[in-house]
Write a structure and sequence with these properties.
This protein is α/β, with parallel strands linked by helices and 356 residues long. The protein has two domains: 250 residues, Rossmann fold (3-Layer(aba) Sandwich); 92 residues, no CATH class. It has twelve helices and ten strands. This is Cholesterol oxidase.
Length: 356
Amino acid sequence: MRANAATYSHPREEVVNFRAGDGKQLNLIRVLGTRAPVKGPVMLVHGAGVRANIFRAPIPRTLVDTLVADGYDVWLENWRASIDVAPNEWTLDQAAVHDHPKAIETIVQKTGWNEVKAIVHCQGASSFVLSAVAGLLPQVKLIISNAVSLHPVMSLATHLKLRQLVPLLSRWTPYLNPQWGLGAKGLIPRALTLAARATHHECDNTVCKMVSIIYGYGLGHSTLWSHENLNPQTHEWVKQEFAQVPLSFFRQMLESLRAGYTVPVEGYRELPQDVALRRPQTDARFVFMAGRGNRCFLAESQRRSYEAMSRYRRGYHSLHVVPGYGHLDVFMGRNAPWDIFPLIQAELNRPTQERA
């Protein structure tokens, strides 16, 4: 039974450093099982203001454990949004052009496999899918994207909050940081921490409250997960897994929300402004996944991306809207190993001929 499930220890791991296209030092964490992998490499990509470790919450069996046990060569990317990288004012453009292509190139070189699968989350997903449709990831043949891809949709309240606060906060600070909940210094950190404590009474974890106020809008409930889905250890663990996120990201998100699709903002020739509207320059199959209760990006985000991609190849891609889950609890939830991971495994293991 679930309550008596064995606790899985983390397998061995190897840190592989690589340089992004613009020279930024990043890394991949290769997770090694007791037996040699037989199914090829799969790369996991985290979202904004977290790190590769976000896929390894203290639950009985993580997605990483599941994939290693299933015979995959598992790689976790720390791209420039990682809190393990020095704070920087990144954009989705930079990650799409500089980070993900070099990460995939490194995996191909290290493993000898010329095909890679990817499981990507939130802004790791937005930037990765942007890179793929621009033709920058030819080795990637399957992309499982969670929460949001090319068509961000937020609640009206969250959209209005971003429109009002981002220009104001940009005058005072280049970053927002949930760690302020552990010790705020300065006017803006203290003000936001007080606001989080005043409007969120669903738990006593101030970092959790800060995550909700930074990434969404709502009173009395969390933005990125349902508390009912987290065990106490995970709820405590998140205190160390969220840190700085730049306002440069939120400014780009505002432009994308206005347009209705992800908008490149830096003028890279590899990313025309309408790249999200063009025929995708990839033969990868996309699996769009969303928690029905996501309060950060509405599940409609993934539905729109699925419909947009399906215009070019009907019956090729997949959409899964999962009841009872939100944004990150699809990976961190206490019951995710039974509710979510089998779905991910089934898509990863789907025979090639079914995708023709």
